[in-house]
Amino acid sequence: MKKHKIIWLLFIVLVIGGGNLYMFSQGNLFLDSKAGLRITKEKQLDYLKKHQDEIKNFVKSQNPKIESVQVDWNQTNWEKVGNGTPWGAGEIVNVYGRFNHIEDSSWNVTFLVKDNEVVPNSMSLANDLYVGGRIFE
Predict the structure, then answer these.
(1) How far apart are CA 61 and CA 12, in angstroms?
(2) Membrane-spanning regions, if any (predicted)?
(3) Does the pLDDT of residue 54 top 90, yes or no?
(4) What residue segments make up the domains of the chain, in order of their start?
(5) Cα distance from N-terminal residue to C-terminal residue, the chain
(6) Rounded-to-integer distance, Cα 71 and Cα 96, Å
């Protein structure tokens, strides 16, 4: 009976140990996915920064009174968007900033993300242009 328990205990230790070795050889799945996501977002942000002039020109084109556009890259965020279906509509990147060097001005441009790549021709103004909480006209 004692020998039987030792055999079972050894079997359990081998199964758990083998599983752990397999996990270590594959890498930590949870950490790797977060690291991969961070790298993907960094690449997307780099892409957007390279196209900063296009973003600025797009915002300027929304109102003839806009002479300069400032981008606040620290406010850039990623969101999953839904369309009423369980799988949703995908992911977007929001880029924010100010214009005409007005402290309480704001704009928000949105890009679609498809297959982990920013879709360049999907740029759209997500909200109106604002100054002091009021629509800029």
Answers:
(1) 67
(2) 6-24
(3) yes
(4) 2-135
(5) 87
(6) 6
pTM of the entire predicted model: 0.70
User: How far apart, in whole angstroms, are the C-alpha atoms of residue 21 and residue 42?
Assistant: 31
Distance CA 54, CA 120 (A): 10
Closest to 116 (Cα-Cα) out of 85, 93, 96, 82: 93
Segment 83-109, tens digit of pLDDT: 777 777 789 999 999 999 999 999 999
Whether the CA torsion 53, 56, 58, 60 is positive or negative: it is negative
Is residue 11 classed as helix, strand or coil in its secondary structure?
Answer: helix
For residue 82, pLDDT beyond 70: yes
For a pLDDT cut of 90, what percent of the chain falls above it?
A: 60
Token pair listed for 113: 């993300």
